[in-house]
Specification:
Elements lengths: L16 H14 L16 H10 L3 H17 L4 H13 L2 H17 L6 H11 L1
Helix pairs in contact: 1-3, 2-3, 3-5, 4-5
Length: 130
């Protein structure tokens, strides 16, 4: 729906330079400030599928872009508890690529500033990943 990655059932498919540029452009628009469409970050929001696809991609460039997007979304939308809960959930239930990307983003955001998070949830996650 939002990315060429949706068309491929094989996540090992290498995307073209133009597809990567399109993903970067979509990411830049999404991360230029707080999300203006709260429906996208609602519990069943459409952005989560897009983020899942980017983070689960085997192409390292796309995966790194996904990590950066999640980090920026968390930084720019601290009031969106659904986004934080999604990232925490993916650390437990996602594939290795997906879980590591979300964990890196959470660790970066929570380590850089006073992010409004539940300390018990974060401690459980750290213990789970240790």
């Amino acid at each position: 729906m939002f990315t060429p990655l949706d068309r491929y059932s094989d996540r090992n498919h290498q995307i073209t330079r133009y597809q990567y540029c399109a993903l970067k452009a979509m990411s830049a628009v999404l991360c230029c400030g707080p999300v203006f469409d709260n429906v996208g970050l609602s519990p069943d929001g459409y952005l989560y599928k897009w983020l899942d696809n980017i983070l689960a991609c085997q192409d390292l460039r796309v995966h790194q872009l996904g990590c950066e997007v999640v980090m920026l979304l968390l930084e720019l939308n601290p009031d969106q508890i659904n986004l934080f809960n999604w990232a925490i959930d993916r650390c437990y239930t996602g594939s290795y690529q997906l879980a590591s990307g979300c964990f890196k983003a959470i660790a970066t955001v929570c380590g850089n500033r006073n992010y409004p998070f539940d300390i018990v949830t974060l401690l459980n996650l750290v213990l789970f990943k240790a």
